[in-house]
Records
---
Amino acid sequence: GNSVTQMEGPVTLSEEAFLTINCTYTATGYPSLFWYVQYPGEGLQLLLKATKADDKGSNKGFEATYRKETTSFHLEKGSVQVSDSAVYFCLRGETSGSRLTFGEGTQLTVNP
Amino acid sequence: DGGITQSPKYLFRKEGQNVTLSCEQNLNHDAMYWYRQDPGQGLRLIYYSQIVNDFQKGDIAEGYSVSREKKESFPLTVTSAQKNPTAFYLCASSTASYNEQFFGPGTRLTVL
């Protein structure tokens, strides 16, 4: 079946460090890919998305590029802030709609 | 403001009691979803509904029930048959043809 594999956490960085959270997906169909963020005690918020190969999603300084050749959608940010501390989820959505496949989530802690 | 609401934010129940969690959306979305999240883990799909008066089991439907009598509402009942109901429950919605999901703020259920 379809799956998403995320880099295991937790990840701890100092403020202004470079962030990469790896995400790979199974190469079946033509999925859309998403990164969602969850702050403590809250629901998930869409961070960015890409719907086809070579698309780059970006938001709030975060970026991810849909790479079909490596089946990856790695999340990057050049300079993290303390306020970026949260859990990040990589997801794939199928072209027929409805269900999403979730990665396990990566806890990020940014220290001042 | 358009959005998705869940109530209450915190809910306490005694073991053996059924409890119903509310989810309402005013985004005019056709599809709605219920997820369960346990501490430090990803999300697991309980039930989803793609249209009014129709719903399907997700990956962990046992011990739960839902109804979809109105487009805006998708309540989840946690029954006494659910062996370990204490968790964080998240509701989401999406359009039928595009799979980006919008999440509510969640309900934390604690069974004493």
---
Amino acid sequence: QVQLLQSGAEVKRPGASVKISCKTSEYTFNTFFLHWVRQAPGQGLEYMGIINPTRGSTTYAQQFQGRVSMTRDTSTATVFMELNSLGSDDTAVYYCAKPLWNGDYAFDSWGQGTMVTVSS
Amino acid sequence: EIVLTQSPGTLSLSPGERATLSCRASQTVSSNYLVWYQQKLGQAPRLLIYSSSSRATGIPDRFSGSGSGTDFTLTISRLEPEDFAVYYCQQYGSSSVTFGQGTKVEV
């Protein structure tokens, strides 16, 4: 069964950066693009972007362009999401997610979520 | 960007009742690209329905999806106690992915 294991909770100051990891297992890493979605406390889901694990190419949602970077380490089958210039409205749970099939955007496996708190 | 509006915001029902959740899009959405998730408190979303009407693996047949164009519906034929949760629709197309704001199904 596909597993996506994310790194632990983070507390950051405004203006700082955060880097979250998502380690994959139980499937071939290059098989699926991986996505990131976030959810502010008590709010809905917000799509952040996608990374191709094979090429490392990325596409980011417009509202995060210039502030987010998604990378991967093929040796450990891990993807990373780094968000810069954090503000209080970046306080959220961040999820990595795998699609049903490559090129699709219906997410059938999710990481457990990483809580990021931005506070002075 | 396509905006998805879900209604109602909250649905108060009892176990055994039928739940009908609506997701309306600001522009036409391909039926292939309309998805429904269930989310319980403190958990990641769970895929229920993809391509508007196909049930994901392991999803009970009391869950069904329908619709096309700009109007989509998730129906739960008979609510079980474990179905009380928040439900989100999602669309993807034109290099854009958006979610509805969610419908809470409560007792």
---
Amino acid sequence: EVVMTQSPSTLSVSPGERATLSCRASQSVRSDLAWYQQKPGQAPRLLIYGASTRATGLPARFSGAGSGTQFSLTISSLQSEDFAVYFCQQYNHWPLTFGGGTKVEIK
Amino acid sequence: EVQLVESGGGLVQPGESLRLSCAGSGFIFSDYAIHWVRQAPGKGLEYVSGISSNGGSTYYGDSARGRFTISRDNSKNELYLQMGTLRAEDTAVYYCARDSGGLRWYYYFDSWGQGALVTVST
């Protein structure tokens, strides 16, 4: 099983600041990496797939990068609606696996 | 608008069975693979199972294999998860999620339901 490790577990950021979240795979997943956002009491929402392709309607302040085992999600200027938990997911190997999540909270 | 609505959750005792349903609307249900993903309280996401658009292919995560069965009825636009021999560690919110690939499997999920809570406890 491919283990996905996200860091940090919690990121405290002020509105308007930049946030960078990391996701590491225990073996190469090529570019088969997705990012999701989850707010309290809500279902996850697809943000990024193919490591760097934004989902339909996603604001340009969200960007994904990386390949192989190291990935990142950057939010260039945090808005109030961006404070949430973010999960990465690899889909290159079975079983599909998710990272443990990074909570982005207001500083 | 794409909608997925889960139902059938509830409280069951260890060893019992439960069937979850997921009703899809706002898209051509029979054109998409659909998956189940679960989330234990306060925890991360765990892949449970997936089924191809025509029901001919299925996948299971390690925790589901041998105990859970996924199926679908495209005439009713519904997906099911039959869960057997439930354990306390199966306690979670179960989401159904649409595969982004349409008739192909892409293995990431572009639409999710709101989830159904399953609690396994005495």
